[in-house]
Amino acid sequence: MDVKNKKLALNRRFIKYIHPLKSITDIPEQKQCWLDQMKFLIEDFNILLKLPYYEFWITIEFTKDAMIGFQTFLREAAPPHLSDHFSQDFDIISMYNEIEHLAYLLLKRLTDENEELTPKYLCGLLVKKNVINIPMLFDLCVIYSHLHTKELEIIIKKLFSHEKLFNENLKSCIQCINKCFSQFQDKIELDLAFDNRPNQNQTGKSSTAMNKANLIIIQDIVDFLLDISYSITGFLEIYPIASNIFYKEKFHLCLASFYHNVKPLIYKRVIMMNKLEQFNEKLHATRLLQVKCVHQCLNSLTEQINTKKESKAAVEEYLETITELLAFNEFVNDYNLVYNLGNSLKKCQSIMKEKDTTRYDYLQKSLALTSETSIECEQLPDDQLEQLNSNNNLENAKLQSLISDVKDLLPHLGNGFIQLCLEYYDMDSEKVISMVLENSLPLELTQYDFSLASLSLEENSIISDKPPLLNKKLKKLKAVLDDKSFRNEMRPFYEQYNFTEVTSAELESYYDDEYDDTYDEVEYIIPEPADENEKRRQDVTPRVLIQKKPLNECIEEYSSDENSQEPKLNFQPFCENPEVVRERQARKYVARQNNKSNRSKPKIFISSTSGSQTELDRQRKGENKAFQGNHNRRNAARNKQQRGMF
């Protein structure tokens, strides 16, 4: 459009759509204020719809906030699955329905074709001005899919066919959704994986306040999951061609991983809070929608398998995808219940002429193992709900998660055998996996069947004959080691060895030794008992009562004693006598002066030999070294070292 026609753009201040629950409380004035604001929004929509075609597009291009009401409505609208978050007032509902109808009419005018402007130019203008983007298309599918399905299909196909930027924006949007799923998973694990027990910083909070806060967190999580599941599945239903883009961006693996990790945490927290009845319907709908979304992502592969063209490559890719999904057994279990994967595998096996039986057997057994696990998320009776709240069921849930971790890598093992190994290795799943892979299991475990399904004594006759190896066995073994009752049983047997009846004849027969009579005539002198007074030591005066004597007297006493050795006194005065110090320093000073005078005197050695003059020259040379060059080598070396030369 020409910039000269900018004057035709509508100069008007457009307003936003506001969700009623964000601005209305119990005060009636707030309700009337919201109704008045929405009347202005309706007036904006009517003015845009009544504008001539050319002026309408000029207003969209050159007026900045011309579509702000339309965009905010799509963002803040109340879809059918979140109707419980909308007011039930008749005036508010009637006003909302009118706004919804006008917004749809505005959407149709944005996508209508005309001879004045080509569809390619119009779609490019919508992308350039960000009038319609990918998240808005998701919202449109959620809001209007139940009433205007076919019309939405035509509109979205037109947008994607005339403007390639929509495909590129869809790829970037899917990548952003994958990142959001991973970040949201971390947030859920932080909020729900641990018990929100009061710590030192929360001692002032009451239990009711904490339960209310946890309930708000759970409600936000459930609403978010339901909303995003509806949005993606609704978009893929209306525009199924986009499933190929979702598959190439590996959205199915991201969603399966999120489902596998988040589902047990949410159900565990909801069951602990006794709120399963409140959230069960939304959680069940979310699970079905997420499973359906993954199935829609795989539609491109299933269509290629159904067609004869390139069916082998499609079958190979489909089997690889199923193998990748088997790592998330929580998801595969529910997916297999809704869409029977066994039939799909049989169909793939019938198409492939070169059948890899081991591969199909592995996939079939893995699916059979996942189907054995019970669905914890179905509707349960009241008595079972009470049992789920007990501590035993929480421990069972933890045990099932550990069993699933082991089964992801070792699907051929049975649940009962994995439980035996886990309790033998103190619930360490990594230790169990390493021991099984290294074939290092002890004999206590190898005697059981590796495909042991459960630990019930009625189903497994192997375990009924022998005591279990679990913590119960360890406790029994400890009790056996601590039990000393066998002593009472064996005491009469060993007491028989303490008393023996021997007659005198028998004693003389084997006790005839001449050595015993050797010292019969020897008289032993028994020492008389010493006097008790002599045994006592001499009376000694305690050291505390002894009067201390001066140091001089002590020295005289020691010196007067001739027999004893002279004691070595370790007496050391506090400070040295100054006179002694001055005398010592004077002696050192005199000695230094004498050394200097001796060095200054030349030492001349006169020899009668012919080399006397040479020796004299050498002596003089040595004495006069200090008066010549190269005598300051130490200072030169220090200067070089400071300058960094070496």
SSE map:
Layout: H1 20-23, H2 28-50, H3 53-62, H4 68-76, H5 90-110, H6 119-128, H7 134-144, H8 149-162, H9 165-192, H10 207-238, H11 243-248, H12 251-272, H13 276-297, H14 299-306, H15 311-325, H16 329-338, H17 341-351, H18 357-372, H19 382-388, H20 391-409, H21 415-424, H22 429-437, H23 443-446, H24 461-465, H25 471-482, H26 486-495, H27 504-510, H28 532-535, H29 551-560, H30 578-600, H31 612-623, H32 633-642
Helix pairs in contact: 2-5, 7-10, 9-12, 10-13, 12-13, 12-16, 13-16, 14-15, 17-18, 20-21, 20-22
Give structural notes.
This protein starts with 19 loop residues before the first helix and ends with a helix. Among the domains are: 3-160, no CATH class; 167-196 and 210-372; 408-482, no CATH class. The chain has helices spanning 20-23, 28-50, 53-62, 68-76, 90-110, 119-128, 134-144, 149-162, 165-192, 207-238, 243-248, 251-272, 276-297, 299-306, 311-325, 329-338, 341-351, 357-372, 382-388, 391-409, 415-424, 429-437, 443-446, 461-465, 471-482, 486-495, 504-510, 532-535, 551-560, 578-600, 612-623, 633-642. The protein is mainly alpha-helical and 646 residues long. It is built from 32 helices and no strands. Helix 12 (251-272) runs antiparallel to helix 13 (276-297), helix 17 runs antiparallel to helix 18 and helix 20 packs across helix 21 (415-424). The model is unreliable at 194-205, 373-393 and 456-470 (pLDDT under 50). The longest helix is centred in the middle third of the chain and has 32 residues, at 207-238. 64% of the residues lie in helices and 0% in strands.
